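Follow-up to my post from last week.
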Amino acid sequence: MSAPYRLVLCLALAGGGAALAADKTVQETNDYYLRPLDALLRVETQAKAAVGSRGGARDALDAEVPIDIITSVQLQSTGQADLQRALAVLVPGFNAPRPSITDGTDHAPPFTLRGLNPDQVLVLVNGKRLHQSALLHNNGTVGRGSSGVDLATLPLRAIERVEVLRDGAAAQYGSDAIAGIINIVLKGYGQRSQATVTYGRTGEGDGITRQGSLFHTLPLAGDGFVNFTAEWRDRGATNRAGADAGDGGRMNTLFGDADTQDGLFALNAELPQGDALFYLHGLYDRRRSSAGAFYRRAGDDRNIGAIYPDGFLPRIEPKILDFSATAGVRGVLDDGTRWDISYTHGHNDYHFYVRNSLNTSLGLATPTSFDSGATRYTQQILNADFSRKMGRHTLAGGYEFRRERYRILAGDAASYMLGPADNFAYGAQGFPGFSPENAIGAGRHAHSLYGDLKYSATERLMLDAAARAEHYSDFGSTLNGKLALRYRATDDLLFRSSVSTGFRAPSLSQSHFSYTGTYRNSNDAAAQFWGNFAVEHPVARALGATDLKPEKSRHLTLGMVFQPSSQLTASADVFVTDIRDRILPTGYISAYSLSSLSPQAAAVLAQNNIDGAVYFTNAIGTRTRGMDLRLDYSHELANSARLKLVAAYQRSRTRITDVNQAPEVLGVNMTDLILDPFTRVLIEGSQPVDAIKLWSRYSQGRYDLVLNLNRFGKFYSVSAYDRVAFSAKWTLDAELSLRLARDVTVALGGVNVLDVRPDKWGRTDDSLVGAGKVVQYSQYAPFGYNGAYYYLRLGVDF
Amino acid sequence: MLPGVLALLVVLQAPWAWAGDEERKLEAVFIGRFASYIEWPAKPRERFVITLLDDNPFGTLLDDLYRDKRIHNKPIELRYATRLEQVGETDALFITLTSASARAAAIQHAQRNGILTISEAKGFAESGGIIQLDFVEQKARIKINHAAAVKSGLRIGAPLLSIATVLRGDKP
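User reply:
Got it. Predicted complex:
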């Protein structure tokens, strides 16, 4: 075919394709025109997403980056009592294991996105940054060495939708937005008040959950509103521990969910005044929780037989207070410029208490209950945004000032002291307290300037460029950028791609966390210190610690959305995320654990009477690669029934690609210092390699049936330096709800109704962890180990 | 190479409406459907005129949809105005103005001239607009200020009132 003919053919095909696309839209609109009015009110439109754009909400499917929308209907149909567990069964790549016997982590477990760390996810509420927990996950759990947001502090009934942006976005939102962003949108205008009570329990009869919530809305003039949600959530403990063969086969340990009570409150209000709108939202959670440490048997050196003749199980019982509030005003100027000024204050107080314990070193004078101290984190943000459409451009930008403060408060003296009676075991058994040497008050502030320019080159091609410059008072400045492209090849087909850089500021807890203890063996002339030293501590400095640098990331996402009809949408995205200078705690720096430790470092330890030390450092680089597939389908059936189906697959793998130089003074390389098999598996294999989610809802008349099928992919753990594989598992959740009256609904449901459990450990040399031993499941199990859970829920709208 | 580039240019410049933009489709449909349930005082016009005031978020969708439709047995004429002064004689006015004061001026103009006003703006019905279209949790909702309709000399049919939240005074 000659060139002119090819030209004519191409033009004809291209022009014809566009014409067909426009015809299809008109045809679908014409179909709507023929429907009865009340049928039009039942049409479910595409979900809108505000995250990732400063120009206002847009169709999530039409965004230049992949965004999942989780609706309140989906959240509530999971039967889960809190947001974190609900997202774990709805969002592919969202991992929320349920660690047990891990100190503070039992009571505020971590979550991750795309196999990265809890602090590499930015969480927003109504588009405003939500503060992280003061808790530093300091045990061998997923997320070790990080502080994340505690999602259980939000009442589930206050949430209208959750937007999950699956792409790096630090160039728009600043620190932490590496794995993605979770934007929680609280119920706003046009809602109905609702009261709900729920009762549930596991198939084994424990884990009794009682939940009562009240969502109430008060309409104000001009379509303003005041919405508040009050919730009481009481979750009983579960226990899947095995018998302790070393204690006569007694069941002496608790391994399962903590016994937790939450009192929650949420507020969301908007008051329009002319072209301005005043808004206020806030969250409050007061939590009491209780979980066990490892059992101290009767003959254990850490026990005093006169107090606990049969041994004892220390109980770690923190009190957690978490609150945040955002107040602001936004509006539009006569020239169309939109503006938004807000102030956000967030606070988390994680206070450790220990019961049913003792301080062995105090002998019979020991108390059995302790205040082990607290960690506190406060965040204040002042933010000013603007956006303006100018022809085909949308220009947005703003300024943000953020102040953070982190504190460690010492516990009572008995909780940390080394007494005269037994110098081997110091402090409160289960969780020795923070000592005055650990107490600290640290802060920093950051200024940010950012801009975002969207350019619609044509009606089909959109380019987005964003940049954000930040200056932190502790580590200095960063500059990050993002370029995104969205191209609608046809009416049905959209391509999208983005490249960006990002960063995560070292958390104040990583820079300043200090948790040390003392003991003295009979041959020690002086008490020996050990534990985690803050990077600015003289001992840590002498051992090579330096101020932490930010983690730096690079992102590439490439994807497409195919929407052959308004009922069916499919999307596919591949991504690569490189992170360098990831922050990890070092291994235990001691002369006996690091055989090649330099004499100089050994001398530092000896001179300071330190058995061994740990501190945080920028250690490694990683590459995470993966893909997301998603399919949404809805269908109106002939008998007024509706079927909605959401299917998703996610796969991601993280590999360590770089290892930084270890401090020269130590005389060891970084691999020996940090990357023991446990840490390597924790980073590369502890999270499911893939996940499948298949959520479906069939509605007819008064009935709704929801089925949620989940596949949690294979993961790895470590036993005695060997990697152990745990196979993928399928779980099925089901809920049947019935409208007893127009405003009264009862729902009966089951989570993991097939009672599937994760693989148990095989044979191990460990005395407590392994087949037939006390701990039979891996801490990394992505859906816990409770087995089936059933619930009954009654809801009344008013 | 050249044919491919030219074809791409044709595609890039083609009029577009994303298949998934259901809100926009519904809005386009509701304008005409609302009008079919409303009675105006007799006017001597041969065409039923719908005017869109300020930004046009529909592209060519309104023209395509209403090209062969009739409302109250009249063919439909679509007009696009960027300022209130450009709004001539019209039966229905779809308002996308972002400024509350500009919307208030448009509402006053409409009430004086017996025009049906429709908008998505929050507080529109309370501030004297006749029909406010909202989308809450991905579904459309209709709010009607009945007093404003009466003041404009319009009669709204029962089928439309029955599926809407109706403001009969100034209170929601």
